[in-house]
From TrEMBL, chain A:
Signal peptide: none annotated. It comes from the Bacteria. The chain crosses the membrane at residues 24-47, 95-116, 132-153, 159-182, 203-225, 262-282. Residues 91-283 form the ABC transmembrane type-1 domain. It is a multi-pass membrane protein. It comes from Thermolongibacillus altinsuensis. This is Carbohydrate ABC transporter membrane protein 2 (CUT1 family).
UniProtKB/TrEMBL annotation, chain B:
This is Carbohydrate ABC transporter membrane protein 1 (CUT1 family). Signal peptide: none annotated. It is found in: Cell membrane. Pfam families: BPD_transp_1. It is a multi-pass membrane protein. Keywords: Cell membrane, Membrane, Transmembrane, Transmembrane helix, Transport. Belongs to the binding-protein-dependent transport system permease family. Its main location: membrane. Residues 68-282 form the ABC transmembrane type-1 domain. PROSITE patterns: ABC_TM1.
TrEMBL record, chain C:
SUPFAM superfamilies: Periplasmic binding protein-like II (SSF53850). It comes from the Bacteria. It comes from Thermolongibacillus altinsuensis. This is Carbohydrate ABC transporter substrate-binding protein (CUT1 family). InterPro entries: Bact_solute-bd_prot1, SBP.
Length: 298, 298, 466
């Protein structure tokens, strides 16, 4: 009796200890994650708070709620003596820029990715190596040369010119990711279509493309986001006010260090980030798929 | 002849735009840079050839030693940070946090710096590190009666590495977490039935599964880090003195701040060569050939 | 390999074709709309660009165009001038870079407003036209003669003077009051500086005293980034920056050593914030406006800046009157007793693109814009000084409490050289100053490194004076 009671009492104790022991790694995991993530949350929170307050006490405590900083949405705003271009022109331009970039990127990327994955042609190996190596090119260090080329094409100070440059800079990576998705489509699928007597192109459109939809989605999102964030190229190759984009608009606000208005700056920054955030939250799943391109093929 | 044409038609159509773009905006600029590197082009923008003068200047440049050292430190440490932190985040958010929604939440937060436009992200960091008592870190120090520290002066490299690290880590995170997700669940189950420790689960199941993505991330990020400078430009602009100046940024500064386009191009050219040599070496070490396999048709 | 060559060849031909098409579409909008409307005046558009925030520089051109149009009408010419303005926001290097790139793409403005020191590279690169006729024109006849030096390069005049400014040392009156200075003493300080009775050394000592007594957190503040203010010290220590005969930048080692010693000294005595060259401009303003520093090497336009943003912790934006109650403005004290106070000006100039299609109209426009009334409008609004005596006599200018007090500084002023290599010199010297202030180098080491750096950067554009 005694023995059993002893045992029955100790058994739960043992399991609870081991349970605790088992949990420790998880607790540490949460702790580490929480601690490292906190500063990021705080930084973005600051952005939000400072856009709605008149002043930040000690740099981070908001004082007095105001909508003043958001005025740029409905009226034209004066900054440093000159009137800023309308935010909606900038938004529209950014949208056109990122949209065109995405479309070009997807079409060219899918075509090239398919060729790299499925077609046999001379120089295929070399082209693939090159594609990966292109990433190593200090493309940004080549700005001056790119200027000469754009100028020669008559595309300096034109959004289309920058779209072309940006597409080119990203296309190796896009093609590479898309290639990964094509690699994962079983050859039998395409083969079956061909045997049924469809033309290759038709097979491509009706059977293969739908299969790599997640890949296309991921690539589109990446292109759009990077187009939306682009700064250096637009800043260097665009002059006119009518071609202003959100990144340049923001740059204008910080350009004169004598006149940085943190409230306005954070409001515009937030406005600038809003589409990115929404886009990102709603397309999380597709975005995470990208890894397949680099990750799955062991 | 006809059959040759037929064989070539599809790849040519599919790869045409891709090849045009990369020729225009990668190869042609490199050719131009290679020519420019032998000119004394300055603010007058004249193509006056001056032989090897730029390269002689490069060798005798009193700053070049520091800049090269910085580049090595910057690339090395950021890479370490990226890969390890990325892996840690991947494991933490997918393995330790089984609840998909919680993992997703953390991953989303970590993606914020990456998807934020560079201008916004560096703005947040600048405000974070601001050396006056109004900066965030210094406001916190003030609460404990500590004098403000000049973060970007005392630890410019650390700040730059952290800034790039936060962004790079999320790249690793996505790739690793999806690789971990694709590990069959029964493996983990079997391990827990066997009573394996968390450490051995990581060591024996997770690490081997992410071996390939690990290589991919390392190579990819190495090349990006070597040639990118946008965040350093915006954060410390290479300063104080030359303490956070890296080679790519040095080339940019020489070309676009000192308007020594010829000399800047010479530095870019050296950078291109270094990048190519290193990628060729890494290629050999990591056996990248596996990655490209032959196409599966024709 | 052979196959690869084939590929390359086909690729090359495709993109050559492609480029042909693209360039073709780029240039279609030129010929049309030149005829038609014989009676209606022909509208000539002149583009003018300036950098923010002083937009009055181009707005004045718009107003001058109205006068020009009246003139043209009187002369019976069937031409109307329209000025299209563009305001750049960004760093000065970006501003120069943009002009270079735009010029080569033939998209540059006809009138490019810039600091006088850019004349060197603009002239050397054939970007701009010489404007020697301006000196003879009626409108520019009463320019302060010293100012012509700032636009002269290789024997020609390259720019129409637009404005100049004072870079006074601001001193905090409240702190001096707490040090026991009488109102009279405080208000007489500028005079004593002007006459060389109050020297640079006195200034340092006073800063030390204020700091030791805990009345000021910092004794001295200067600009946090590279800029003209630093080089005035070379002049102050009796040195030179430029040799016009040989057209070379001068590294005057004795003077530069003294210059570095000065910054080393004030850093060592803890008079400046030890992170000064890393501070944000806005925090510099906050520190000064909130009375934490005794002396500030500033610019007269800072009065304008302080009214634009909430720098004061309690008052937010502060107006001119407030600034004058709490701050005085003086020249930079002479390095030696019995010397004279000194300052440096950085006149702004209109330059004319060498690709402009209407050089005569543009030149006439630049003459008309020198009108004292227009100058005054700009000067009063943005706190700058006039370039002509007529501008200085204008009643609105004289009535201004801030400007009236510093107008005399134009007589004590110096300029940066117009040489195209000067920005490189400036950057290198700034780096040296930064190094000594941060305690990373001694002035001797910094000077040695500076010499090596300049030899490398400037090559035969440099002349070293021992």
């Amino acid at each position: 009796m005694e023995v059993t009671s002893y045992r029955s009492e100790t058994a739960p104790v043992m399991t609870s200890v081991s349970k605790w022991k088992k949990r420790i790694p998880f607790i540490i995991a949460y702790g580490v994650l929480g601690l490292t993530t906190l500063p990021i949350i705080l930084m973005y929170l600051w952005l939000l708070l400072s856009s709605f307050s008149e002043q930040m006490k000690y740099g981070f405590i908001p004082v007095r709620f105001t909508l003043e900083n958001w005025k740029f949405l409905w009226t034209s705003v004066e900054h440093g003596g000159s009137e800023l271009p309308s935010i909606w022109t900038a938004t529209w331009n950014s949208f056109v820029f990122s949209g065109t970039l995405t479309i070009l990127e997807v079409i060219i990327g899918v075509m090239a990715g398919y060729a790299l994955s499925r077609l046999e042609f001379p120089g295929r190996q070399a082209l693939m190596k090159t594609t990966l190596l292109l990433h190593a090119f200090p493309s940004i260090a080549l700005l001056i040369a790119v200027y000469y080329i754009l100028n020669f094409m008559g595309l300096f100070d034109s959004l289309w010119g920058v779209v072309l440059v940006k597409t080119a800079l990203q296309i190796p990576m896009t093609a590479w990711i898309v290639k990964g998705f094509f690699d994962d489509v079983p050859w039998d699928v395409e083969w079956a279509g061909l045997i049924d007597g469809c033309s290759r192109l038709k097979v491509w459109f009706t059977i293969v493309l739908p299969l790599i939809k997640p890949g296309i989605a991921a690539v589109s999102i990446f292109s759009f986001l990077s187009g939306w964030s682009e700064f250096l190229l637009l800043y260097t190759f665009i002059l006119s006010d009518e071609n202003v984009t959100l990144a340049s608009y923001l740059q204008r606000l910080i350009s004169d260090p004598n006149l940085v208005n943190y409230g306005l700056l954070s409001a515009v920054s937030l406005f600038y980030m809003l589409p990115v955030l929404l886009f990102f939250i709603f397309t999380q799943k597709s975005l995470m798929q990208v890894s397949v391109g680099g990750g799955k093929r062991v | 002849m006809g059959s040759v044409l037929k064989r070539w038609k599809l790849p040519a159509v599919m790869l045409g735009p891709f090849i045009i773009l990369i020729s225009l905006f990668y190869f042609l600029p490199v050719v131009l840079i290679a020519i420019l590197a032998f000119t004394s082009m300055d603010s007058a923008m004249r193509w006056d050839f001056n032989g090897l003068a730029n390269f002689q200047k490069l060798v005798t440049d009193p700053n070049i030693g520091v800049v090269v050292k910085n580049t090595i430190i910057y690339v090395g440490f950021t890479l370490l940070f990226n890969v390890f932190f990325g892996l840690a985040l991947g494991i933490l958010t997918t393995y330790f946090i089984q609840k998909e929604s919680v993992g997703l939440f953390f991953r989303t937060i970590w993606m914020l710096p990456r998807i934020s436009p560079p201008v916004v992200y560096t703005l947040l960091l600048l405000w974070f590190f601001d050396p006056s008592e109004y900066g965030v870190l210094n406001s916190l120090r003030a609460l404990f009666n500590m004098p403000p520290d000049k973060w970007l002066t005392t630890h410019p490299m650390t700040a730059v590495i952290l800034a790039n690290g936060l962004i790079g880590a999320s790249f690793g995170m996505i790739i690793f977490s999806s690789a971990i997700k694709s590990i069959p669940k029964d493996l983990f189950y079997a391990a827990s039935v066997d009573g394996a420790s968390q450490w051995s689960v990581i060591k024996d199941i997770i690490i081997p599964a992410v071996r390939w993505p690990l290589m991919f991330v390392t190579l990819w990020q190495f090349l990006s880090l070597l040639t990118s400078y946008e965040y350093i430009l915006l954060l410390t602009n290479g300063g104080p003195l030359f303490e956070s100046e890296v080679l790519a940024l040095y080339s940019y500064h020489k070309a676009f701040q000192n308007f020594e386009f010829g000399y800047g191009s010479a530095i870019s050219l050296v950078l291109v060569l270094i990048a190519l040599i290193f990628s060729a070496l890494m290629w050999k070490w990591f056996g990248m050939k596996k990655m490209m396999g032959s196409s599966r048709i024709e | 390999m052979r196959k690869m060559k084939k590929v390359t060849a086909s690729v090359l031909s495709t993109f050559v074709l492609g480029m042909g098409i693209l360039t073709g579409c780029g240039k279609t909008d030129q010929s049309a709309e030149s005829e038609a409307n014989a009676n209606k005046p022909k509208v000539v558009t002149i583009e003018a660009q300036t950098a923010a925030p002083e937009v009055t520089r181009v707005e004045n051109l718009e107003k001058a165009a109205e006068k020009l149009n009246e003139e043209l009408k009187k002369q019976g010419k069937n031409i109307q001038v329209k000025v299209k303005t563009n305001v750049f926001e960004g760093s000065w290097e970006e501003y120069s870079k943009q002009f270079m790139l735009a010029f080569k793409a033939k998209k540059e403005p006809d009138i490019y407003t810039t600091g006088h020191e850019n004349i060197g590279w603009l002239a050397d690169g054939n970007y701009i036209l010489p404007l020697d006729e301006l000196k003879k024109s009626k409108e520019y006849s009463d320019v302060f003669p010293v100012l012509w030096d700032s636009v002269t390069y290789k024997g020609h005049i390259w720019g129409a003077l637009q404005d100049t400014e004072a870079r006074p040392v601001f001193y905090n009156k409240d702190i001096l009051r707490k040090l026991g200075w009488s109102e009279e003493q405080i208000n007489n300080l500028p005079e004593k500086v002007k006459n060389g009775e109050f020297t640079l050394e006195d200034m340092t000592k006073l800063a030390e005293e204020a700091k030791a007594k805990g009345l000021a957190e910092f004794g001295i503040i200067h600009r946090p980034v590279d800029g003209p203010d630093f080089h005035v010290m070379v002049y102050n220590f009796g040195g030179k920056l430029y040799d016009p005969k040989e057209n070379k930048i001068v590294l005057d080692k004795k003077a530069v050593k003294k210059q570095l010693d000065y910054y080393y000294d004030i850093a060592k005595k803890d008079l400046i914030p030890d992170n000064l060259t890393q501070m944000e401009w806005s925090n510099i303003h906050k520190t000064v406006v909130n009375g934490k520093a005794l002396f500030y090497y500033g610019g007269i336009w800072n009065v304008f800046n302080w009214g634009q943003d909430n720098f004061h912790e309690k008052l937010g934006k502060v107006d001119e009157k407030w600034v004058n109650e709490h701050f005085g403005m003086m020249l930079i004290p002479a390095a030696e007793k019995g010397g004279k106070g000194i300052t440096l000006s950085h006149p702004f100039v209109y330059t004319v693109s060498s690709q402009t299609e209407h050089p005569e109209l543009v030149k006439r426009l630049l003459e008309l814009v020198a009108d004292p009334a227009l100058q005054t409008e700009h000067n009063v609004k943005t706190f700058h000084l006039p370039v002509t005596k007529g501008g200085a006599e204008h009643p609105d200018f004289k009535a201004n409490i801030t400007l009236g007090k510093v107008a005399y500084m134009t007589e004590y002023t110096t300029f940066l050289p117009n040489h195209e290599g000067f920005p490189k010199y400036s950057k290198a010297v700034f780096n040296a100053i930064q190094a000594v202030e941060l305690g990373k180098k001694t002035p001797e080491e910094a000077l040695k490194d500076l010499e090596v750096q300049l030899k490398n950067d400037l090559g035969d554009q440099l002349k070293i004076v021992e």
